């Protein structure tokens, strides 16, 4: 059997609660009205009895020969005017002088009179000739000496009090019924809204759906962050915690309190949407997208997704290196064809000696650089990188010089991808700077010891002013125009930080970049 939806369960529970509350309130009100009606009746008959006992009529009539003749009409007039059920005036022995039923006159009063005979007025509920009643008994005292000469009792029957209570409670019942109907209607409206919000799902289904969603959010590798309209994090999955190194208590904090890259924080605080934007952290390159969430025309916050592009960027760098090397080989093949044609032409012209000298001279220059790079750099990828960069620099008219003491026997635990990123981007920037200078050279040196690997790239360019050296490793900073600029040195800084090293910017003829990378244990 299908379970009731959450909205229906809450409707039933709330209707029951409202019904019980209204019933309990009505019962308490009924009891309170009954108590108050009895108290007000007792107060009413006490005041009336005292008024009669304190007047001169009763004292004078009791002293006469026929008290009943005077007091019976008087008591009935007062009873009719006040609406009480009986007024009985009696002697101190309890013999009635008055009674609503004249046949009871002369009989003894049914009730207690001891307190009244002692001079104290009192009230009680007693069953007399008219049935149960709330009555007051008050002494009548002589004016001369204050002794008790008669008693006055006034009362209202319990049935009359009950009728009065019933009249009052009728309205109470009507009000309670109206409240119950209004409460049930309000509960129904709330349950309808809740049913729309929950899609009519039962609690178990909601629990299962939330569990699925939580599992999916934390299973995806991509980072997901929900930011409210106050720029506070409301949800972040495991992927984004790993990508941004967020603290465990990130939920509820503002985005500018999490130690995120300043450029990313500024974009999030600006509430502008991002589409495949690149942002660098200390160790990663991230592709960021964001979009504003709207509901009923109101902005609720921002959904931010992040993808790690670090490995892809490293592979792209390696691919660029291989492509550059291939281009260099193609250029060299073209040059080799030209040189071969020159040698053949010299032979055909009968000048073999000059042909041999030309061929061996060109071969020696190329072979010297190749032998030096291959002998100094054990990592094939780095060797290919330097040879490719040398050919590329040569095409741009820049001489790439590898220092004679350069030696990289191994990278000491630093990934080859990071070395390609660091050295490749530093050489590219150096070649760009040297291409506009007079000297037009770039010098590379590297050496390693037991503690660290040191890479140094110098150029003959204009160098970096000291006041901008701290900004050079930020994404987007560049000395050249163009939206695609400003990424190379930022990647260098990221790779150096990821390896736990440092990078220094100095000046000789031009800029000098020195990278120090700690050596890790080789496996």
TrEMBL record:
TM region positions: 169-190
> Where found?
Cell membrane
Q: Which UniProt keywords apply?
A: ATP-binding, Cell membrane, Kinase, Membrane, Nucleotide-binding, Phosphoprotein, Transferase, Transmembrane, Transmembrane helix, Two-component regulatory system
Start and end residues of each Histidine kinase domain: 419-521
CDD domains the UniProt entry points to:
HATPase_DpiB-CitA-like
> Which leading EC class covers this enzyme?
transferase
UniProt KW Magnesium keyword: no
Listed GO molecular functions?
A: kinase activity
State if Nucleotide-binding is listed as a keyword.
Answer: yes
Stated EC number for the protein is 2.7.13.3
Q: How does it sit in the membrane?
A: Multi-pass membrane protein
Which Pfam families does the UniProt entry name for this protein? HATPase_c, sCache_3_2
Name the chemical reaction catalysed here: ATP + protein L-histidine = ADP + protein N-phospho-L-histidine
Name this polypeptide is given: histidine kinase
Organism expressing this protein natively: Actinokineospora xionganensis
């Amino acid at each position: 059997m299908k379970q009731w939806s959450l909205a229906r369960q809450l409707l039933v529970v709330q209707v029951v609660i409202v019904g019980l509350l209204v019933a309990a309130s009505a019962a308490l009100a009924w009891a309170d009205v009954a108590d108050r009606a009895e108290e007000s009746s007792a107060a009413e008959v006490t005041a009336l009895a005292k008024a009669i006992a304190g007047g001169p009529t009763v004292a004078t009539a009791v002293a006469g020969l026929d008290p009943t003749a005077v007091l019976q009409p008087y008591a009935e007039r007062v009873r009719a005017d006040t609406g009480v059920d009986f007024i009985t005036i009696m002697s101190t022995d309890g013999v009635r002088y008055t009674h609503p039923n004249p046949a009871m006159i002369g009989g003894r009063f049914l009730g207690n009179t001891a307190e009244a005979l002692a001079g104290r007025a009192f009230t009680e509920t007693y069953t007399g000739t008219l049935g149960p009643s709330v009555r007051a008994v008050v002494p009548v005292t002589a004016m001369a000496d204050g002794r008790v000469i008669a008693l006055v009792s006034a009362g209202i029957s319990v049935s009359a009090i009950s009728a009065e209570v019933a009249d009052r409670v009728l309205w109470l019942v009507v009000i309670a019924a109206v409240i119950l109907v209004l409460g049930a209607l309000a509960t129904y409206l709330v349950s309808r809204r809740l049913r729309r919000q929950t899609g009519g799902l039962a609690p178990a289904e909601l629990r299962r759906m939330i569990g699925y969603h939580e599992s999916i959010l934390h299973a995806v590798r991509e980072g997901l962050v929900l930011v409210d309209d106050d720029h506070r994090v409301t949800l972040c999955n495991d992927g984004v915690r790993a990508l941004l190194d967020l603290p465990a208590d990130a939920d509820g904090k503002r985005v500018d309190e999490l130690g995120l890259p300043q450029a990313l924080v500024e974009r999030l605080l600006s509430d502008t949407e991002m589409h495949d934007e690149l942002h660098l952290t200390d160790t990663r390159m991230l592709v960021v997208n964001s979009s504003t969430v709207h509901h009923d025309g109101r902005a609720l916050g921002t959904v931010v997704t992040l993808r790690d592009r670090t490995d892809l960027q490293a592979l792209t760098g390696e691919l660029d290196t291989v492509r550059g090397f291939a281009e260099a080989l193609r250029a060299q093949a073209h040059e080799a064809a030209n040189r071969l044609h020159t040698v053949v032409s010299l032979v055909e012209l009968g000048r073999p000696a000059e042909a041999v000298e030309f061929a061996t001279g060109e071969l020696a220059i190329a072979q010297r650089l190749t032998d030096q790079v291959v002998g100094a750099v054990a990592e094939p990828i780095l060797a290919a990188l330097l040879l490719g960069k040398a050919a590329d620099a040569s095409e741009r008219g820049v001489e790439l010089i590898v220092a004679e003491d350069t030696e990289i026997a191994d990278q000491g635990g630093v990934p080859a991808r990071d070395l390609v990123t660091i050295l490749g981007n530093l050489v590219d920037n150096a070649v760009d700077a040297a291409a506009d200078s007079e000297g037009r050279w770039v010098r590379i040196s590297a050496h390693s010891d037991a503690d660290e690997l040191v890479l140094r790239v110098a150029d003959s360019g204009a160098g970096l002013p000291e006041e901008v050296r701290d900004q050079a490793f930020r994404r987007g900073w560049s000395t050249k125009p163009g939206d695609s600029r400003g990424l190379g040195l930022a990647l260098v800084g990221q790779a150096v930080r990821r390896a736990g090293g440092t990078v220094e910017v100095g000046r000789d003829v031009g800029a000098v970049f020195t990278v120090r990378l700690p050596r890790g244990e080789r496996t």
